[in-house]
Give the backbone structure.
Amino acid sequence: MDYDVMIIGAGPGGIFSAYELAENRPDLKIGVFEAGHPLEKRKCPIDGKNVKSCIRCKPCAIMNGFGGAGAFSDGKYNITNDFGGTLYEYIGRDTAMELMHYVDNINCRFGGAGTKMYSTAGTAFKKKCMQNRLTLLDASVRHLGTDINYVVLGNLYARLKDKVDFHFDTPVWDLQFCDGGYEIITEQGDHYTAEKCIVSVGRSGSKWMEHICSELEIPTKSNRVDLGVRVEIPSVIFDDITDELYEGKIVYRTEKFEDPVRTFCMNPHGIVVTENTNGIVTVNGHSFEDDHRKTDNTNFALLVSKHFSEPFKDSNGYGESIARLSNMLGGGVIVQRFGDLERGRRSTPARIEQGTVRPTLNATPGDLSLVLPKRILDGIIEMIYALDRIAPGVASDDTLLYGVEVKFYNMEVELNSRLETCHKDLFVIGDGSGVTHSLSHASASGVYVARQILAEL
Ligand SMILES: Cc1cc2nc3c(=O)[nH]c(=O)nc-3n(C[C@H](O)[C@H](O)[C@H](O)COP(=O)(O)OP(=O)(O)OC[C@H]3O[C@@H](n4cnc5c(N)ncnc54)[C@H](O)[C@@H]3O)c2cc1C
C-alpha cells in the first residue's frame, strides 16, 4: 500500500481528517489528493477591469484547491445543530456540538483567536421576530472573515505539509477496490493505494461522487434544492441585527403557500460575488474583518427549499436549469431593483444608477420574474415585506436583488453511524456526502471519521 489513509479533497472535511490523523499518529502515511491548486496559487482572474465576469477556469480557484469551497468564504463558523447539515442524525447532537467546538478551538489556535463569537442566546431580537411571523434560529457563530479564514488555512497547511503528502492539481478520476483496500487513479494516470479511504469532494465533486456511488453500488438519494436571490441593502438598515448577531438565520412561513423562506449567508458591510458550479454562474456573498475592505452595504440570500417527490429525482438539475436561464438572459448574474420587480419591469443600467444602493457586483440589470418560478418569487417578496417590519427599509424600491442564488445539495450517500459506506473503510464526509452543508459540520465530520480510524488502528 502507498498510504495508510488516502483523502480525496482538501476542503475543510479533508483538512480536518488529515489534521486529526497526523496530530495523533505522526507515523501514519497520509496522502491528500486535491483537484485544485495550493492555497497561495488560488487566484480568481475576475478583477473588475480586464476580466469582468466568470471565464469558467478549470479548476475554479474559488471552489477548488487547499481550503476547498470555504477558502474565500466569509468564514462564518456556525456552532449549531439547527442548520448547516444533519451530522447530528448520524453521530448524535452532543458529539456534533463537541466536535464543532473542538474545530473552533483549532481555528482560534491557528490564527482566529482575535475574532468575535456571536450568539442568538437571550437576544431581544428573537421576540421581535416572533411578533412578525419570523423565527430566529439558535446558533453561536464565529466570524473569521475572508481574510482571517485565509490566514488560518495558511497556518494549518504549514503545520501539515511535512506530515502529509499533498498532491495538488491532481483530480482523482476513479476509485476502485483493490486487494486489502482501495486504489485511486488520477487524471494524470497515476495509481495510488491505501487500506482506508476518506472521500471529501464537496459540492464541486458532486457529479464525480454520483458516478463513484453508481460504480461501487453505494445507495444514494437526492430530492432537494434551494433557490432564491441575494438581497443587497445599505448596511445601516440591518446594523442593529448584524451588530448583535452578525448572522441572523431567520425563517418566514409564507401566508400564501406556507412555504418556509429563510435568510442565508449574511455579509454585513460585504460584497456580492459570483460563483461557478459546474460551469453555471450563480451568486453568493463575502465580507471582511479588515475595516479597510468593508463596504457600505450588507447582503444576504433569501432562499426557498424545493423538495421533489416521485418520480422526479434530479433536484440539482432543476436548480441548474433555472440558473442557466439567468445566465442565458443576463450572460451571468442578473440584478434588479425591488421597485422594478414590484412594478413588473426590468431594471436598466440607468435605473440602477439612479438608485441609492450602489451594487458591489457588476451584474446585468434585468428581470428576475422571467427566471424564478412564481411561487418562489412570491415567497421572497412576502419575506422582504416581513423583514421590513423588523428592519424598516428592506422593502425599499432601491433594494437590489441578484439572481439567482442556488444552493445545490449533493445527493445523500447512505452511511452508517461511522460515516462509512456499505464498503468497509470507505468513508464519505463533508458536503460531498450530502450530510453537511457548512464549514463547521464538514470540518467536524472530518475529525469524527479520523477518530473512527484512529480507534481502529
Ligand atoms: C462563496 C462561498 C461562501 C461560503 N461561505 C460559508 C460560510 O461563511 N460559512 C459556512 O459554514 N459555509 C460556507 N460555505 C460553504 C462551505 O464552504 C462548505 O460547506 C465547505 O467548504 C464544505 O467543505 P468540504 O470539505 O465538504 O468540501 P469543499 O470545501 O467543497 O472541498 C472539496 C474539495 O475537494 C476537491 N475535489 C472535488 N472533486 C475532486 C476529485 N475528483 N479529485 C480531487 N479533488 C476533488 C475540490 O477541489 C475541493 O477543494 C461557503 C461556500 C461558498 C462557495
Notes: The CA atoms of residues 136 and 420 lie 34 Å apart. The radius of gyration is 22 Å. The mean pLDDT is 93.
